[in-house]
Design brief:
Radius of gyration: 14 Å
CATH architecture: 2-Layer Sandwich
Number of helices: 3
Distance between the termini: 8 Å
CATH class: Alpha Beta
Helix content: 25-40%
CATH topology: Alpha-Beta Plaits
Number of domains: 1
Order of helices and strands: EHEEHHE
Structural class: alpha+beta
Oligomer: single chain
Largest sheet: 4 strands, antiparallel
Strand content: 35-45%
Length: 103
């Protein structure tokens, strides 16, 4: 199991717009991706910061999403964040949600 973390600096006052777009556009697209398991998003209005973590079956699933879907998706959200999002990858070691074990 793999996790993909995306951290962005939100534009001031764009919290509601960003959360609506994630609910209406991002999550439906993610659900259509092979190997996608879950998405958890966090927003800190006080610091205009967001963090999203998605969970994937395999590293190949994550890479395919990043190549085929993510670039267009991010272009549709550029009016909600500043700069370039920070993207990191992790192998999941433990989880109480899915009883996931380290590989």
């Amino acid at each position: 199991m793999y996790a993909r973390l995306v951290k962005t600096q939100m534009k001031p006052g764009k919290y509601e717009l960003a959360t609506r777009r994630i609910e209406e556009k991002v999550i439906p697209l993610l659900k259509k991706q092979n190997g996608f398991r879950d998405e958890v998003s966090f927003f800190d209005k006080e610091h205009d910061e967001s963090v999203a973590i998605s969970f994937w079956e395999t590293e190949a699933d994550v890479r395919k999403y990043e190549k085929d879907v993510y670039p267009d998706l991010m272009r549709s959200l550029t009016d909600t964040f500043e700069g370039t999002p920070e993207v990191r990858h992790f192998e999941v070691a433990n989880s109480t949600w899915y009883k996931i074990h380290a590989a």
